[in-house]
Amino acid sequence: xxxxxxxxxxxxxxxxxxxxxxxxxxxxxxxxxxxxxxxxxxxxxxxxxxxxxxxxxxxxxxxxxxxxxxxxxxxxxxxxxxxxxxxxxxxxxxxxxxxxxxxxxxxxxxxxxxxxxxxxxxxxxxxxxxxxxxxxxxxxxxxxxxxxxxxxxxxxxxxxxxxxxxxxxxxxxxxxxxxxxxxxxxxxxxxxxxxxxxxxxxxxxxxxxxxxxxxxxxxxxxxxxxxxxxxxxxxxxxxxxxxxxxxxxxxxxxxxxxxxxxxxxxxxxxxxxxxxxxxxxxxxxxxxxxxxxxxxxxxxxxxxxxxxxxxxxxxxxxxxxxxxxxxxxxxxxxxxxxxxxxxxxxxxxxxxxxxxxxxxxxxxxxxxxxxxxxxxxxxxxxxxxxxxxxxxxxxxxxxxxxxxxxxxxxxxxxxxxxxxxxxxxxxxxxxxxxxxxxxxxxxxxxxxxxxxxxxxxxxxxxxx
Length: 464
Ligand code: FAD
Ligand code: NAI
What we know:
Elements: E1 2-8, H1 12-23, E2 28-32, H2 39-44, H3 46-64, H4 79-103, E3 107-110, E4 112-117, E5 120-124, E6 130-140, E7 144-146, E8 159-160, H5 162-165, E9 174-178, H6 182-193, E10 197-202, H7 213-225, E11 229-232, E12 234-242, E13 245-252, E14 259-263, E15 265-268, E16 272-274, H8 281-284, E17 288-289, E18 292-293, E19 306-308, H9 319-333, E20 347-349, E21 354-359, H10 362-368, E22 372-378, H11 383-387, E23 394-400, E24 406-413, H12 416-428, H13 433-437, H14 448-456
Parallel strand pairs: 1-2, 1-6, 2-3, 6-19, 8-15, 9-10, 9-15, 10-11
Antiparallel strand pairs: 4-5, 5-6, 7-16, 12-13, 13-14, 17-18, 20-21, 21-24, 22-23, 23-24
Bound molecules: flavin-adenine dinucleotide and 1,4-dihydronicotinamide adenine dinucleotide.
Flavin-adenine dinucleotide binds next to helix 1, strand 2, helix 2, helix 3 and strand 4.
Domain Pyridine nucleotide-disulphide oxidoreductase dimerisation: 345-454
Binding site for NAD(+): 179-186, 202, 271
Catalytic activity: N(6)-[(R)-dihydrolipoyl]-L-lysyl-[protein] + NAD(+) = N(6)-[(R)-lipoyl]-L-lysyl-[protein] + NADH + H(+)
């Protein structure tokens, strides 16, 4: 079979790329090695984790917050039903991708894809049979997998990755999380809300190391109030797992005495690494750098007609970044001018409260020697936040001291992941804090805190 485009991998990068290419009239095929489409994000990542984050938050609120609102309930956990809600959500989403492939007349092949050279892909099915496909262009969108912790075996029962952690058959009494990154804090939150004692061991001396430090520090205090225990500046050196539980040896990262902690379940969440094994990159002469496929500014690898997008290439490992790259390369291959603005990619941690950020952190601006003004506004001073009992957190806007152009924004607060988008649009249009400060915001909304933070850049917030 000959195509205009073969996409290897059907995650957010691959499936979105295929749909956009088909919309633009390219004869498109997708090769996916798993039984379902949608990749990490839809099957074991974004979607199931958010289904559990929502359900566990509802459970927690029913037990802890409803009484303050005059609602008396004693919630009882039905974990199998909660896991079914998650599984049903995944099924609906992955089936949705299959439907979109059919609707857009995309040919889907199930099997492991291997690049034999420019324009040639071999698909090896589960039955051992192989077939060869040809195309003018190939897009590698094979995503990433969990990074292993040296010396620790992930059995997905006692010692789990995120995949095991979204399917635990019972609430662990003690959950030990290795890595205070996004996965550790999101999935740690799920099980903490359902009753687990959560301990987090983090190599660095701070949580969420790429976030704005002020936000991360306040967030750490809030998580501690929620019952989290942190061992920062520590590394896990050994996990002895048995049916009785796990003995976890931790040591200070800078050297010192080891301690042994008990846990029922250990979650390893120390990052992810690109999927390139078995893709035939070396034989095809496609360059990689520390496992990631090397691309130029137009997603092209060093082999003509072979492109790569998503988690398998440089940049943040985020579904929306992969999707936007998928759209951009499809548009380029159809003769249009697709592009991704990497300066304006939001990132959200879906905990309670949420953390949403875009653009530069204060630390990055300082390091780059850029003069900036800060506008900050706390949710305690926002009427809707008080009405909703959601006063934790604040909005922080960083604007260029000379031009007032917004360079970064960081929101810690309930619903931050929705609120950040007005800053996405503002920054995409190179807007200033003054533009935001002059935009009417509906009252009473949490988003008024965003406008107040913009007003605070020039010290004229009204409610503070
Ligand atoms: P993937 O989604 O990993 O898809 C790659 C696909 O390629 C897979 O289906 C794989 O089976 C297939 N494949 C690999 N090799 C081959 C081969 N040789 N042949 C055929 N098929 C192959 N990001 C967010 O933005 N928001 C979130 O809330 C979020 N939550 C997450 C929660 C968890 C627990 C995890 C683990 C990740 C989360 N992410 C989130 C990250 C997000 O899942 C990834 O950034 C995103 O899935 C990357 O998309 P992708 O298309 O590059 O790769
Ligand atoms: P991460 O990179 O976010 O965090 C890993 C953490 O582990 C870091 O704080 C790091 O310092 C620490 N660490 C590394 N080695 C360690 C060690 N040996 N001992 C102790 N700590 C160690 O990685 P995570 O949480 O695994 O997530 C992987 C990717 O998935 C992220 O890049 C993220 O972008 C994506 N993701 C995004 C989500 C979202 O957008 N809401 C949700 C979940 C995942």
